[in-house]
């Protein structure tokens, strides 16, 4: 009987494959006699398609382009003999295999990417090809062919949308960093109150006063638990969600800053701005309107790498922020490709030294030199300096000797939610945190000069 037509990719090697089951009991007339062991725990399907195939076809011609997928299959079959592969048209292929864990399936997808990194030889000409992969795995005991195919197709659709591979585990959909799923859930998360801010103070070293605070966004997910920015900010950046999310953060920070001012703590709150938004005229307009109407002290933190994406637009828009009175801080200085050419053009009033250099300040020979020279450079450019990642009294003392203006880190306070931050300020808890190393400044200064 002919099969009904389907919009799904054909499932390689599974239509006539007997289903393996770990723990399946074999019986004879006298009862159970054996149990199958050492069978794969997971079944995986990866759907992959060639990127930029139209450009490749123009380069090699239509007849040769029709055979490109065969070259890709041959290479993958040679390198990954445990994988069953078959083409799905001129530009796509399907890989199916069994393995012992979800992590192992993800590792196979990474191997596929690595294998594709080597250039191909087409009639004496070399070409680099890349695959966009959407894949899914499930426990072999529960794996259903149709469900796997449909889930893999959706993963590939999502991979196209975010321009990044998507590999999922059907047995644990909440596990791992699934950017497309997080991106879809983010608007509802904002509306339902799952998104919230924590605040981490920045303290002036000499005066021992809280100078400002950095607002850090968090997501309290009902299933995944606490999600830190590293997991969902990238997903938001790959979509149109990062703009609304940042505007929500600005609005929330404005409301909280008003409360701070009413309680006698009229300090600015700094918000991290994604590099993608620095060239977005619509976001710049909306952010300026929020800050202007809010009447609160709000600052923005940006990274140098964010500026490098589109320097002319970024610098022009940063000047717009500066013109309406928004103080600007350069975040994570030294962690990326620091450029003096951009640094001198940025209308920033604060430079933040990345914690990478601060955490090793008292145990490294080079880091103190880098930090000291950075402080001197920033002061020469009329910027104040904040050291991030201050965790020990010794580091605080040495930074004071070097002339660092402000410090931020776990020694002073970890990021805390707004009610706790109000308590922190009202009880001057930063003073107790800084009291220990206060009398070591003079001793460390002598050691620094002697060195």
Q: What CATH architecture label of the largest domain applies?
A: Alpha-Beta Barrel
Helix content: 40-55%
Low-pLDDT runs: 1-37, 437-451
**Mind summarizing the main beta sheet?**
8 strands, mixed, barrel
Overall strand count: 19
Q: Which secondary-structure class do the elements indicate?
A: alpha/beta
Averaged pLDDT: 82
The fraction of residues assigned to DSSP E strands is: 15-25%
Rg estimate, integer Å? 28 Å
Determine the number of helices (DSSP H or I, runs of at least 4 residues).
Answer: 18
Q: What distance lies between the first and last C-alpha atoms, to the nearest angstrom? A: 87 Å
- Which word captures the global form? elongated
CATH topology of the largest domain: TIM Barrel
**Which CATH C-level class of the largest domain is it?**
Alpha Beta
Question: How many discrete domains?
Answer: 2
Strand order of the largest sheet: 10-11-13-14-15-16-17-18
The CATH superfamily name of the largest domain is: EAL domain
Model description:
- The protein has 451 residues and is α/β, with parallel strands linked by helices.
- It folds into 2 domains: 25-173, Reverse transcriptase/Diguanylate cyclase domain (Alpha-Beta Plaits), CATH 3.30.70.270; 180-450, EAL domain (TIM Barrel), CATH 3.20.20.
- Helix content is 42%, strand content 23%.
- The strands form 4 sheets. The chain has an 8-stranded mixed beta barrel, surrounded by 5 helices. It has a 5-stranded mixed beta sheet with strand order 4-5-3-8-9.
- The radius of gyration is 28 Å and the shape is elongated.
């Amino acid at each position: 009987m002919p099969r009904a037509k389907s919009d799904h990719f054909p499932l390689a090697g599974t239509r006539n494959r007997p289903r393996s089951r770990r723990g399946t009991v074999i019986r004879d007339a006298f009862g159970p006699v054996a149990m199958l062991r050492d069978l794969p725990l997971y079944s995986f399907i990866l759907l992959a398609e060639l990127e930029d195939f139209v450009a490749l076809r123009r380069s090699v011609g239509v007849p040769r382009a029709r055979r490109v997928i065969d070259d890709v299959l041959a290479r993958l079959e040679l390198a990954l003999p445990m994988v069953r592969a078959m083409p799905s048209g001129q530009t796509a292929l399907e890989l199916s295999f069994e393995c012992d864990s979800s992590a192992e399936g993800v590792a196979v997808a990474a191997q596929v990417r690595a294998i594709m990194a080597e250039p191909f030889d087409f009639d004496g000409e070399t070409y680099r090809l890349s695959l966009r992969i959407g894949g899914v795995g499930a426990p072999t005991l529960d794996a259903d062919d149709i469900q796997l195919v449909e889930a893999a197709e959706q993963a590939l659709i999502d991979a196209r949308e975010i321009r990044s591979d998507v590999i999922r585990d059907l047995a644990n959909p909440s596990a791992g960093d699934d950017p497309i799923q997080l991106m879809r859930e983010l608007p509802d998360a904002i509306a339902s109150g799952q998104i919230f801010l924590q605040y981490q103070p920045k303290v002036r070293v000499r005066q021992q006063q809280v100078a400002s605070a950095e607002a850090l966004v968090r997501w309290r997910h009902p299933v995944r638990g606490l999600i830190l920015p590293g997991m969902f900010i990238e997903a938001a950046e790959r979509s149109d969600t990062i703009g609304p999310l940042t505007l929500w953060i600005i609005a929330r920070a404005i409301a909280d800053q008003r409360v701070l001012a009413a309680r006698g703590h009229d300090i600015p709150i700094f918000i991290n701005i994604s590099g993608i938004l620095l060239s977005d005229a619509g976001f710049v307009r909306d952010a300026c309107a929020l800050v202007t109407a809010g009447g609160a002290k709000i600052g923005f933190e940006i990274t140098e790498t964010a500026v490098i994406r589109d320097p002319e637009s970024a610098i022009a828009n940063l000047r717009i922020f500066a013109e309406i009175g928004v103080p600007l801080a350069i975040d994570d200085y030294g962690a990326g490709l620091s450029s003096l050419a951009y640094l001198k053009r940025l209308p920033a009033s604060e430079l933040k030294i990345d914690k990478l250099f601060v955490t090793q300040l008292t145990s490294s020979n080079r880091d103190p030199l880098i930090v000291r020279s950075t402080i001197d450079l920033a002061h020469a450019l009329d910027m104040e300096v904040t050291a991030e990642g201050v965790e020990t009294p010794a580091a605080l003392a040495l930074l004071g000797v070097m002339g660092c203006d402000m410090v931020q880190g776990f020694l002073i306070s970890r990021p805390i939610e707004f009610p706790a931050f109000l308590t922190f300020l009202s009880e001057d808890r930063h003073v107790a945190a800084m009291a220990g190393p206060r009398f070591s400044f003079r001793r460390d200064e002598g050691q620094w000069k002697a060195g």
